[in-house]
């Protein structure tokens, strides 16, 4: 479970990590991401690069 994940890049990474519960202030963004994942998981995740982790000071 992760809390206050509001950035779609972070949501996609949490999904890649297999996190079951994502708490967010923008549920419509998470719902849209999950709908896209149901259609084509690989294509959807390809839109969200993994390099963001190393470019942000909090990581």
Key structural traits:
PLC-like_Pdiesterase_TIM-brl; single chain; mainly alpha; GP_PDE_dom; 59 residues; GP-PDE domain-containing protein; 3 helices; globular
Provide a descriptive summary of the structure in words.
With 59 residues, the protein is an all-alpha fold. It has helices at 8-16, 27-39, 41-46. The protein is globular. Residues 1-34 form the GP-PDE domain. It comes from Rhodofomes roseus. This is GP-PDE domain-containing protein.
Which secondary structure elements does this structure contain, and how are they paired or packed?
Layout: H1 8-16, H2 27-39, H3 41-46
Coarse morphology: globular
How much strand content do the residues show? under 5%
Oligomer: single chain
Instruction: Enumerate the spans where pLDDT stays under 50 for 5 or more consecutive residues.
Output: none
Average of per-residue pLDDT values: 90
Number of strands: 0
The percentage helix is: 40-55%
| Biggest sheet overview | none
Gyration radius, in Å: 11 Å
Order of helix and strand elements from N to C terminus: HHH
> What structural class do helix, strand and pairing data support?
mainly alpha
Organism: Rhodofomes roseus
Domain GP-PDE: 1-34
Protein name: GP-PDE domain-containing protein
InterPro entries: GP_PDE_dom, PLC-like_Pdiesterase_TIM-brl
